[in-house]
Amino acid sequence: MSLLLRHRFIVTGQVQGVGFRPFVYRIAAANAVTGTVNNSSQGVIIEVQGTAEQVETFGFDLTDKLPPLARVVSLHAEPTDPVADESGFTILKSTGGAGHSVLISADVATCPDCMADIATPGNRRHRYPFTNCTNCGPRYTITRSIPYDRPMTSMACFPQCPQCQAEYDDPMDRRFHAQPNACPACGPQVWLTDPAGTTLARGDEAIRMLAEALAQGRLAAVKGLGGFHLVCDAASDKAVAELRRRKHRPDKPLAVMLADLEAVRQLAVVVPAEEPWLTGIRRPIVLAAKREPLAVSPLIAPDTNFLGVMLPYTPLHHILLDTFAQAGGSEIPALVMTSGNLSSEPIALGNREALARLGELADLFLLHDRDILIRTDDSVVRVNPASGGPVLLRRARGFAPEPVFLAEPGPTVLGTGPELKCTLTLTKGDQAFPSQHIGNMANLETLAFYREILDHMQDILRVRPELIVRDLHPDYMTSALAEELGQTLDIPVIKLQHHVAHIHAVLAENKFTDPVIGLALDGTGLGEDGTIWGGECLMVDPESLEHQRLAHFSHIRLPGGEAAVRQPWRIAQAALWELGVTAPGAYPWPWLAQFEQESAFLPQMLTRGVNSPRTSSCGRLFDAVAALCGLTSAISYEGQAAILLEKAQDMTETGAYPCPLKSADPVSLNTLELVAAALDDLGQGVPVGTVARRFHLGLINGLTEMAFAFSTLLDIHHVALSGGVMQNLTLAAELPRALERAGLIPLVHRHLPPNDGCISLGQAVWGQRYLRLHE
Ligand SMILES: [Zn+2]
Ligand SMILES: [Zn+2]
């Protein structure tokens, strides 16, 4: 008999809740080794015993034949003492404890096998809305703590029936140790109520009643995976208009859920690079080009040429769309699915909370009794037509809590994020964990959500920060929170300028450690000189942490402060005032019809500088040009003016406005010349589409020339691009190409949004480096 060897493997990464242990069991059986596998706080610990050859092939299989959702971060192997008389291979009970290095998986869209189960009459899970297996289903949203085992999830209160238990215990079954495993006999149930909470129907009858009500134009709140959706028939103008009215959301685009890719193609032109996003396991909302005339209500996304579409990602969605189609909704069954919240509040979570908060919004409530422990909105992705890569607009469900892998390990740092589109980030070793999108910190509900996420992430990552990095802005809620946490934890709090954080975020995502020229094309953030920054050319060195403001956009005043952000006509008039234009000439100002009185007061405000802070913001420049073009005078959601300007472009136009550099200290990019040229053109009756296009191209040229000038001066060839304006697909597609033509190497976001959703990552990674430098 040949000599027996025993090896111990410790595997970390995304290896729990993804069918990893059954996979280990299967390859152990295939290689005829004995031993054990155990989920522990250090990772998955595997011990295998067999001949040298058996143990070696087992090791190969372990890395080569991974299940689809598993992601190994580290694999450590060491010999250990053989165990006498061991027979068979055993899956041990999980052990918890500190020092955790296992990643909880993000939530995963229903797999084809489970879809077949729910679609097959006679299957015991036929039309069961909570069907899942080790390859799919809820993860992050139902996990209270680690290790990821049923008692730690919101499935703890659903003891499995004998049939489910048998699946759960059978290593050869697709549901072996599927923690959320359930069936109609033992698992969660749905029911339908009116806004008062009176039950109208249960189970399948509830879904049928809901589908019929939706087909009749009613509005419903539907409890989903990471929160509630407000739902209505996307084909019904009346229903969509009513949803907009109740949600106080007059114009902002709404997302639509369709049954399959074929249905999506009826409404949108789907390019190949968008398909894997639509059909993959993450299932974000994808902004795809609208197919005109739109086969659903035009009220869904009136401002843009794009439509937010997504495919069902839970069995409940699949069943609901299927039933809605049968209820004879419309030709292409499509449901509006928008976050169940009032504008700017976080998405609703619990049944009672939903009835209380959404009672005015919905006619019907589809509830269920599986608790959502961690609220997570739908993610939103655009595909960059030039690179085929994603531009994330919102990173949440399907992504969180996945880490960003960093160039170097370091101590744990908390980046507390900005005010709007807020996220927080905790680092651990060489990984950074950005939270899901948290939202607008200006309201109390969001603050509570933020604290929940912070506690939860510290718990599941088993970390405590040694340093907190916050924004410079003293009035941000996240700044106050950072100071409070710093005191509680007795750790230092350091401030980092908003746009410097933007650039550090892109660098971290690219694991890039050399100095770069950073273009932060953003809304607004407090600058180091006390003015409001937002169109910045920076030198950033991620090693030494030095940075320098090389240049900025022309200053424009914001007459009325916040009011100017909501009423872009004020910024347009302020930009004209900077150019010495104080009254309409050949071109009548489009805002005078609506705001003539207010407009008359502006010159006085501007001359005296009363409540008119100066800004170099790129976003506000877009606002000014959009308002000058008459596209909008007052906006109802953030970014609306820029979205309208992007849409307005006549893509056949090739002319570009001048946008030269102007020597000063620091240098400025004379973006006011773009406004002057637009005014000239408009005065001569040049169509708005031409003006919008010449503006975009002029800005791209100006930015490229500026980057090139500093590249030559500083001998730096990489240009990092970040900021909310990079959500604009024209810039996202054409600016990197223009930089490349100039011999520069662009770095763009890969895992996080270019908007303020990336700030906390930049802060945290900057802080890690700061601690290493000051060791
Ligand atoms: Zn499945
Ligand atoms: Zn069951």
UniProtKB/TrEMBL annotation:
It catalyses: C-terminal L-cysteinyl-[HypE protein] + carbamoyl phosphate + ATP + H2O = C-terminal S-carboxamide-L-cysteinyl-[HypE protein] + AMP + phosphate + diphosphate + H(+); an acyl phosphate + H2O = a carboxylate + phosphate + H(+). Residues 204-398 form the YrdC-like domain. The active site is at R21, N39. InterPro entries: Acylphosphatase-like_dom, Acylphosphatase-like_dom_sf, Acylphosphatase_CS, Carbamoyltrans_HypF-like, Carbamoyltransferase_HypF, DHBP_synth_RibB-like_a/b_dom, HypF_C, HypF_C_2. Keywords: Hydrolase, Ligase, Metal-binding, Zinc, Zinc-finger. Its EC number is 6.2.-.-. PROSITE patterns: ACYLPHOSPHATASE_1, ACYLPHOSPHATASE_3, YRDC. Residues 6-93 form the Acylphosphatase-like domain. One of its GO terms (biological process) is protein maturation. Belongs to the carbamoyltransferase HypF family. This is Carbamoyltransferase. It comes from Pseudodesulfovibrio aespoeensis (strain ATCC 700646 / DSM 10631 / Aspo-2) (Desulfovibrio aespoeensis). The lineage of its organism: Bacteria, Pseudomonadati, Thermodesulfobacteriota, Desulfovibrionia, Desulfovibrionales.
